[in-house]
């Protein structure tokens, strides 16, 4: 069964609806974004959620100090790194981390090898103006010839209820990540969240 992460959570009612529908992880964006939350907002949501739902903080080129403080303050289980964080920076972090990769071509997938101590690798699209959450898809076929540990693979980028089944069949990730695909007019939509989670759990 494929695990599900819903990213860009800003409201408790969306978080608890996702938790009740069986979500495995929720993402709080601390980087510059229309989905940005404060540490206090994230903490207030995070502490009311069940322990089995993993809380993930999303960052772009944050300092070690910011990552460590945010991890503690907001009760995070992982930090998710969407910037140019180097393998050395990640190795010395001493926090459970997910490294995000923006995939333009097959070669971008080879960079995963440099981050062996990542808990997960999140593959996202490179198209769109932001470092993540663009609602755009990359070519999943790029993974075809690659030796990647699928138990550590999170697929992101433009997923929605219409392309989810095909995405899971082609990529076989351990987890799928969605943000734009469960929004209506830029706001999380509880019906879409529930439908997406229910669908992912069938595969
Ligand atoms: O969601 C954002 O606004 C964001 C901004 C800056 C860095 C990362 C961001 N999101 C990270 C995620 O994990 C998203 O869920 C992922 O990029 C997929 O988003 P989408 O294509 O909208 O489903």
Automatic annotation (TrEMBL):
Where do the N-(5'phosphoribosyl) anthranilate isomerase (PRAI) domain residues begin and end? 4-197
Write out the pathway annotation from the protein's UniProt entry.
Amino-acid biosynthesis; L-tryptophan biosynthesis; L-tryptophan from chorismate: step 3/5
Instruction: Tell me which UniProt keywords the record has, alphabetically.
Output: Amino-acid biosynthesis, Aromatic amino acid biosynthesis, Isomerase, Tryptophan biosynthesis
Q: Which reaction does it catalyse?
A: N-(5-phospho-beta-D-ribosyl)anthranilate = 1-(2-carboxyphenylamino)-1-deoxy-D-ribulose 5-phosphate
Which superkingdom does the taxonomy of this entry point to? Bacteria
Annotated EC? 5.3.1.24
UniProt protein name: N-(5'-phosphoribosyl)anthranilate isomerase
What is the taxonomic lineage of the source species? Bacteria, Bacillati, Bacillota, Bacilli, Bacillales
